[in-house]
Amino acid sequence: MSNQCCDVDPHSDSSEFQRSVRALKEIDFELAYLAALTREGLKPLSRWEKSLTDDDLVLLQRMGLLTRQVRRTVKTGREIVETIFSRTPGYIQLYEQAFGNTPIDKSAGTQRFEGFLFGYPPCCVNQYIRKPYAPNNLTQHQQKILFHWACRDCKITASLLPAYKRIYDSLDRC
Ligand SMILES: [Zn+2]
């Protein structure tokens, strides 16, 4: 395993790529981490709910990601803008068709579809719908580097964790 900073894409020798990762980290570590996971294909699509400038979007695009801003509404009727990013146009289209200009909702059907788009194991999504944050046997750090709450003894999460950890650690060293 390499100890190189920002070694999230071993096939890329582009310093522009690394500059983008560092700049994203300055905005928010979690944004850089999500971008790296999505760039690596571990997450088909990711969503960022805080606001981003056009320059911030360019950083994501320099990492090879397609970006789109999607308008949603909250219960009060207020409009919010989400940013989604993915390597593949198909996932961007699926998200836009399902959720563009719609109110935010947390129904089981929505959670299942979001889980599919975000790369969450379906067993964990179903467990979360039945009972959120049910005890699992992950360490605090293992759970912290994931974006889904793992179900107990999850086989898929066990396979995902080393890949997530490699990316998390490489960003941490940046
Ligand atoms: Zn699971």
List keywords for this structure.
single chain; 174 residues; alpha+beta; four-stranded mixed beta sheet; 8 helices; 4 strands; globular; binds zinc ion
Task: Produce the secondary structure layout.
Elements (H helix, E strand, L loop, with lengths): L14 H13 L1 H11 L5 E4 L5 H9 L3 E8 L5 E8 L2 H11 L2 E2 L4 H11 L3 H9 L9 H5 L10 H18 L2
Parallel strand pairs: 2-4
Antiparallel strand pairs: 1-3, 2-3
Molecular structure report:
The protein is α+β, with helices and mostly antiparallel strands. It has helices at residues 15-27, 29-39, 54-62, 89-99, 108-118, 122-130, 140-144, 155-172, and strands at residues 45-48, 66-73, 79-86, 102-103. The protein starts with 14 loop residues before the first helix and ends with a helix.
What string, H for helix and E for strand, traces the elements in order? HHEHEEHEHHHH
Portion of residues within helices: 40-55%
Helix/strand-derived class? alpha+beta
Q: What integer value in Å does the Rg equal?
A: 16 Å
How many individual β-strands?
4
Strand count, sense and barrel status of the largest sheet are: 4 strands, mixed
N-C termini distance: 15 Å
The percentage of residues in β strands lies in 5-15%
Count of helix runs: 8
User: In order across it, which strands form the biggest sheet?
Assistant: 1-3-2-4
**What shape does the CA trace take?**
globular
Bound small-molecule species? zinc ion
Mean pLDDT: 92
Low-confidence stretches: none
Question: In brief, what are we looking at here?
Answer:
The chain is α+β, with helices and mostly antiparallel strands.
